[in-house]
């Protein structure tokens, strides 16, 4: 931006004080204000004059760039020559060039006495007459130029021996020293003006030079925008794919872990909480991963590049960036301190809403039967209100973030303009540099703003990650043995033995059962009778190791069920729960739930035994008729 404003607009597209082409007489004028060493260096980078007396720059771009060797050599002479081309008042000549001009003029105008003339040699008389003639010619040229000293009159003085070229070089350096810290900016601007006049003298239209430079800058900016667009698209694609892969793997691992939970672990978390952790919590992690990849990786790059550009400009306003960073950090720190505890509570409130809704839907029939709709609605409203109150608090707190950030950005802009304008007024800074500094500072602040945008979702994602981690790292109480065993080939098939079995639910104070002993043989039917809550269902659940006994042992075909792998144990046992459950799918998929081992003949036989053949035949589609979740449509 600074180049577009300073070079493209203010300097007419001239980026360097070293012209592409220069006339021979113009280069000779510049060399009058250079030392012999500098003049030789300049001569070396320009070609020989063509038929029109034009010399072309042949040096490197580094040498002609601002701060380059050749640029530093020609800048001050161009400034001085421009002043002489515009005309310098004879009375101010001494102020500009020091006392050398006054001494030379006095020497030229002082007339010797007759005695002094009589003592002069013919050569001295000839030299005196030559200087007198040169002084007259120089004065005539000054009068012709309206009392101004120009390069024509200056060259007449040098050729006539009235002005010492070495004094001109010293005078130019003295002039730069008097300007002090402003010399760099002023000399550069004056040197560019000289180059513009030189191009005009060669017949080059300044508008063409400016348009060519702006065209190059526009092409460069378009290319950078195109690269930025491609990078943004690729970043978005990579972020989406990576975040979705993370969520997929987390869902798979979490669900696989839950599938190996015993009822004890499920009861520890509750079904509603497990559903929330497998869906909503992982969704929060996915959103955070997407934002982190798309923004958090971009923000540091943008901020670091902006800081590098700011430090390269040497504007003296770098302290404003520190002020901006401190202000942004303070805003984010305060808001995060206020909302972080609420974010941790929010997920538990989501669990409560899901649990209440699940209980309400599962118990809809008894709720209606006992006319408890109002009570359940009040219970749901209470859970929903707690969640709403927490969300309102966090949203209201975070709603202050963007206005406060914009306030910080605007205040920093005003601060930069205030102090930058003083630098422009003093001549130590150009307008383009100030505008570029504002732009870079805003990029740095924007980098912090991007991080704050991510910080809005990170607290919830952190809580969600902790909740998902609790599920994944939760130890299971029912596991395969380290050295599994199988019944011997000669062992009886279907023999089940309970030996002094006792069981106590987790966190319970007393055993549900204790000292249970019995044996059932293959083909034998055994009925267990007891009152409600006596442990009949629990006893059956101990056989496929839905729970593990807390005392004694259960053996199947002579092998302790805890010494068999779960898959092998449950393959040998047919367990029918008290409550039937249908899965979404078709009648066939539910009847073949055991897997591919169930043939069509087995399926029809099972339907016949369950006396469901007529019911299935009446449905449109038969075995292919759809079944809703939980069998709600049958």
- Going by CATH, the homologous superfamily of the largest domain would be ABC transporter type 1, transmembrane domain
Mean pLDDT: 82
CATH class of the largest domain: Mainly Alpha
Number of domains in the coordinates?
4
Strand order of the largest sheet: 6-5-7-8
> What is the fold-level CATH name, i.e. the topology of the largest domain?
ABC transporter transmembrane region fold
Unreliably modeled segments:
96-109
**In what range is the share of β-strand residues?**
5-15%
Q: What portion of residues is helical?
A: 55-70%
**What summary fits the major beta sheet?**
4 strands, antiparallel
- Number of beta-strand segments: 10
Distance between the termini: 71 Å
Label the overall shape. Answer: rod-shaped
Structural class of the helices, strands and pairings? mainly alpha
Overall CATH architecture of the largest domain: Up-down Bundle
Compute the gyration radius: what is it? 47 Å
Number of helices: 26
Short description:
With 634 residues, this protein is mostly helical. It folds into four domains: 2-204, no CATH class; 227-472, ABC transporter transmembrane region fold; 496-571, P-loop containing nucleotide triphosphate hydrolases (Rossmann fold), CATH 3.40.50; 585-631, no CATH class.
